[in-house]
Amino acid sequence: MLDIAWLIPALPLFGFLVILVLGRRLGEPKAGYFATAMCGAAFVVAVGVFLDLMSKPGDQRHKVIKLFAWLPINDLQVNLSFLIDPLSITMILFITGIGSLIHLYSIGYMHGDPKFSKFFLYLNLFVFSMLMLVMGENLLVTFLGWEGVGTCSYFLIAFWHTRDSAATAGKKAFVTNRVGDFGFMIAMFFAFKYVHSLSYSDINNAATSHQIAAVTATAIMLMLFVGACGKSAQLPLYLWLPDAMAGPTPVSALIHAATMVTSGVFLMTRISPLITVAAPWASTLVAIVGVVTALFAATIAIAQNDIKRVLAYSTVSQLGYMFLAIGSHAYVAAIFHMVTHAFFKALLFLGSGSVIHGMHDQQDMRFMGALRKLMPITAGTFIIGWLAIAGVPPFAGFWSKDEILLYAYDKSPILWALGLITALLTAFYMTRQVIMVFYGKARWNDDAKAHGAHGDVKPHESPVLMLAPLVVLAGLAIVGGGLNLPFNSTTEKLSSWLAPVVDVGERSLHHSSEDIKWVLAGIATLGALAGIAVAYLVYEKHRVKAVEPVVLENAWYYDKAVSDFMGGPGRESFDAVAWFDTHIIDGAVNGAGRLVQGVAGVVRKGQSGLVRTYAALIGVGVVLMLAWFFFRGVAQ
Amino acid sequence: MIAAVAHPTTTWYLLLAAALFTIGVVGVLVRRNPLVLFMCIELMLNAVNLTFVALAKALGDIGGQTTVFFVMVVAAAEVVVGLGIIVSILRKRPQATADDLAELKG
Questions:
Q1: Which domain holds residue A588?
Q2: Is residue A291 part of a domain?
Q3: What pTM, to 2 d.p., does this model score?
Q4: In angstroms, how far is the first alpha carbon of chain B from the final one?
Q5: Which residues of B touch A617 (CB under 8 A)?
Q6: Which residues of B touch A605 (CB under 8 A)?
Q7: Looking at this predicted complex, what is its ipTM?
């Protein structure tokens, strides 16, 4: 089974090509079903590969599948090859699995859209790119996928490009990602210069066997971290993700919850042996960026009124947790949280899509309320997602978040405390969202605009095609924690599964932390419950007045500050660079051209066009050469 | 003297070749008729051929004689092209001299 692993990315690519050629003829809904089938088939192959990998002993779960030599350039040998190991297959399983569910959901969600088949074209291309990213055996193949998902996210976010906001959000996502890509490329240049290879195993081996200096390892790691910050929406490059909600909701679920944003976490886990060699402050930096992002985004989320923006900031916040885990050398916890987060965040996004669909494109939570009776299945599954993200045991989010907090505590109690506050805020804003959407008074007729446009159209439940993925994801959000229960070594399945990949870099807990892990879990649970209780009092019982400062609603004005800077001094410096380019750089180039012209103007006079003169000059030349040979002979 | 003429040595041949070559060079430099220029060039080529043959005979080396064949073949090709050009020019501008054909002047 391992040998046909190349089929996994090939199937979505095939789907992409077929829809590219035949998309219009297939039309709705055949194009959707075809794309879903391709993604589903990739999932089936992935399961086969997974089972094959599992049947092998731990140290043999590593296979490189070389398709062809991509860049055989002297010192630099880059192959287009895939690496199948526990880490990549874990990623593949949830990308193709959740991807298939989202494809299925999209058939219902995109119903009636004039660009129906094009949407699935992009979705398949996106899944293909994401698979290239995680399956790549070297940085360049990963970079191919990395750029691919960046491009696809641009296409998908700006899918409704006639809307100004969507077109702008697409550009913003692309440009912000490019900043991160720059870091990625520099990391590749470093790796090529010092390791002479872009293969992950070569880079990691060179680091662990100390063939490269610690400072080089630090540089490569930090540059890759810059790339990861861009893709995984960490401070200061998180800006694009909340805006990316302008795309269709399945896109938000696929790209901005389950797959694309996790690529940074994946990348950092891939290079975990390198991180052990890098300077310790670099890891601490990662942890701080992670926890600050988590807290920062969580504070913003409590004051948002757009149902999808809350979830968007929540995604940024949860990704911050994952980077906190990476910085604490808790790679298993990071991957664990990535997987459970993919379950419940995809669920929440698809649930919000179902709400938006039922509310006739109303996204403002202030005009929702009391929807649980009208959309029972959406409400039920959404509530499961809420409990999972809030960290209520025994739902998936509890276990993974708890593991991250445990390792953070082991690194530094301050990180733990900040993580705990974030957990409390998470529970708070998610409860707020659930109450505003599904409980309380029905407020959907208050919206004068909707009233005028739709009359008294009641919100309705979504079609079964959209509900089925919700139910499946809700099930996963309940049991997802079972992947890695912290009771003993046999229940820690994910830890032992990922051990061959991350063992070199994984943190071993101090005994003191190990002893109090249940105490920490208890505190985290209490924190989550406290957050829920406060939100309940504020938004359901109205005992306490809601505090939603404008500064938080405007995301600390960070976005505005960046825009102002880029529009003001940034713009001016770009103009200055442009001036420098046209006048100095182009001036130098044009000057060189003019110099040649001038010299040629003088020299061309020598071309008289008289054949006999040329002949005479040839004769003189021959005589001179003969004389030279002759006198040289005499001199010797 | 008569014996020397009847049994010419290599030097004679070389002197003849030098004389022919000089005539060619002077012709190229002083004449302006394109056809005459062309004939002078042929003269130079054949002067060189003569040295080749003479020295090949003197040194007993067949290489020189072989080279002459190549020179003759190249010269033949050159005649075809060169004469073609000259004839077509003269057809358009019957009175043209080599100095008038200076269109490539810088």
A1: 564-635
A2: yes
A3: 0.78
A4: 55
A5: none
A6: 106
A7: 0.81
